[in-house]
UniProtKB/TrEMBL annotation, chains A, B:
<keyword id="KW-0479">Metal-binding</keyword>
<keyword id="KW-0808">Transferase</keyword>
<dbReference type="GO" id="GO:0046872">
    <property type="term" value="F:metal ion binding"/>
</dbReference>
<dbReference type="GO" id="GO:0046912">
    <property type="term" value="F:acyltransferase activity, acyl groups converted into alkyl on transfer"/>
</dbReference>
<protein>
    <submittedName>
        <fullName>Hydroxymethylglutaryl-CoA lyase</fullName>
    </submittedName>
</protein>
<comment type="similarity">
    <text>Belongs to the alpha-IPM synthase/homocitrate synthase family.</text>
</comment>
<dbReference type="Pfam" id="PF00682">
    <property type="entry name" value="HMGL-like"/>
</dbReference>
<keyword id="KW-0456">Lyase</keyword>
<comment type="similarity">
    <text>Belongs to the HMG-CoA lyase family.</text>
</comment>
<dbReference type="InterPro" id="IPR000891">
    <property type="entry name" value="PYR_CT"/>
</dbReference>
<dbReference type="GO" id="GO:0046951">
    <property type="term" value="P:ketone body biosynthetic process"/>
</dbReference>
<dbReference type="InterPro" id="IPR043594">
    <property type="entry name" value="HMGL"/>
</dbReference>
<dbReference type="InterPro" id="IPR013785">
    <property type="entry name" value="Aldolase_TIM"/>
</dbReference>
<dbReference type="GO" id="GO:0006552">
    <property type="term" value="P:L-leucine catabolic process"/>
</dbReference>
<dbReference type="GO" id="GO:0004419">
    <property type="term" value="F:hydroxymethylglutaryl-CoA lyase activity"/>
</dbReference>
<feature type="domain" description="Pyruvate carboxyltransferase">
    <location>
        <begin position="5"/>
        <end position="270"/>
    </location>
</feature>
<dbReference type="InterPro" id="IPR002034">
    <property type="entry name" value="AIPM/Hcit_synth_CS"/>
</dbReference>
């Protein structure tokens, strides 16, 4: 029986949040259709943040008002109580709440310390009352652009506090793309050792060419859920030199050709990435969209 | 005690063989100095091939006539008997002889079938009489651009014949960059099961974003030697849409930050990649040269 992984699409959230080319509502809906057509069933559709700081997310409510829902789960990223309230109001299936593991980055990203972030999580967890699924993302879980190293002990310390109100799922985010496969083994291993029943998702950035290696190391360490974006677009507006997410189609190629089911269709994912590249008007990092699958379809 | 891997530099061979910008002898010597400065001790310095077909390699003898030698091992790639004789004459430390696992590609690459390639290897092995180190590369070991899938059984069948005259080392080459980590596990595992004492090197191309993932999978499967080029330049002239080797500096980052010694200095490797990019006059694929190491040096 084939092993299975889940690829969570973050194209319309992390993927475009830092893009200079503004994608209007119609374009987002068109891209969403391509994302679903490629095979996505769990989608981080937007973030509920200050539109003055992240203009691409200004239409969050409008986008959520008219979502295809059947067979899909939609996630909204939130950074504070106001965003959380907006996500609930918008009727999404899940909220993804981020806590940054370093105070300097946490202040820049969401105007609070990590400890304040944890305290707010406890309040949000109480307020959800089971109405939505919950994910807590530990951001900068492999390193901080301002403070440098983030020790494993720091990650576990914050996680212990988070788990006083356990979310449905934990995401470890390599926000600035510094992780190596050994880091993945170490940190996923540390989480699993402490909380063996907590589902883990990995949010990786391919800033230093280790993105797919880290995804593979995560798979080998037992992770079965991975964030990705069409064409590998993405990057955090508040982290210097942050670059793209894992390209969905590249991840699909790696897993499917390794005999692991993703539920995606590679050719449709490539078509989606190419459509996004046209919409953005500049080259995107994905490699399968340039190289093509293997073996190549007849006649290529 | 730290684990150790070897990174074999192939910048001046595979790295530039398909480059449109011609690198003259002085530029090659300057790049070689940068490669050595970065930490390379084993270097595939050139190939002894038909200069009409691969003009960048036309100065093979001139380059080899004036090589720094102390603490270094220089390798010449050869595809036929004439190239082999030239490599011996040039006084290199090792010859790397390629056998392509599919007949169509083998004919295009070196004008003979795979079986003829094996027969020639037996002749070359007899002629070396221990004068130089020998490596046999099985090219297109993970797939062929013309014939598609190359079964593991085919690889083992050819390897069995090669091993009638055992080389010092075997290289498995993903010439067109189609391998996934599972392929690496399967094929390295098959070789090790059949010939447990045969040292294995991996020659990988990052055409489909799986390059570093494959290197990591190779490491986990017991491989300790990997080909790479500064900036990740490279590609085979006779394989459609073949792209770059693993970028040396990206590989150094992945291994060193995973606690595995490479003998390279990351900053010097990045400096070499940047110098090569200037010499070639176009962007190269390496990512560390854009993102920088981590943690960043003070003041960045």
């Amino acid at each position: 029986m084939k092993d299975v992984v889940e690829i969570v699409d973050v194209t319309l959230r992390d993927g475009i949040q830092n893009e200079k080319t503004f994608l209007d509502l119609d374009t987002k809906k068109r891209m969403l259709a391509a994302i679903i057509d490629a095979g996505a069933t769990r989608i981080e559709i937007t973030s509920f943040v200050n539109p003055a700081r992240v203009p691409q997310m200004a239409d969050a409510e409008a986008l959520c008002a008219d979502l295809p829902r059947e067979g899909l789960r939609h996630i909204g990223l939130v950074l504070n109580h106001r965003g959380f309230a907006r996500a609930l109001e918008a009727g999404l299936d899940e909220v993804n709440y981020a806590i940054v593991l370093s105070d300097t980055f946490s202040q820049r990203n969401q105007g609070m310390t990590s400890a304040e972030g944890v305290a707010l999580w406890h309040r949000l967890a109480a307020e959800t009352r089971g109405r939505v699924g919950t994910n807590v993302t530990l951001a900068a879980a492999f390193g901080c652009p301002f403070e440098g190293e983030v020790p494993v002990a720091r990650m576990i310390e914050v996680l212990e506090q988070v788990m006083e109100a356990a979310p449905d799922e934990l995401t470890l985010a390599d926000t600035i793309g510094v992780a190596t496969p050994r880091d993945i083994e170490d940190r996923v291993g540390a989480v699993r050792a402490r909380f063996p029943d907590l589902p883990i998702r990995l949010h990786l950035h391919n800033t230093r060419n280790t993105g797919l290696a880290n995804a593979w190391a995560g798979y080998c360490a037992g992770v079965r859920s991975f964030d990705a974006s069409l064409g590998g677009v993405g990057g955090c507006p508040f982290a210097p030199r942050a670059t793209g997410n894992l390209p969905t189609e590249d991840l699909v190629y790696m897993f499917e050709r390794s005999g692991i089911a993703t539920g995606y269709d590679l050719d449709r994912a490539i078509a989606g990435a190419k459509a996004l590249e046209v919409a953005l008007g500049h080259p995107v990092p994905g490699m399968l969209m340039k190289a093509g699958g293997f073996p190549a379809p007849a006649g290529i």
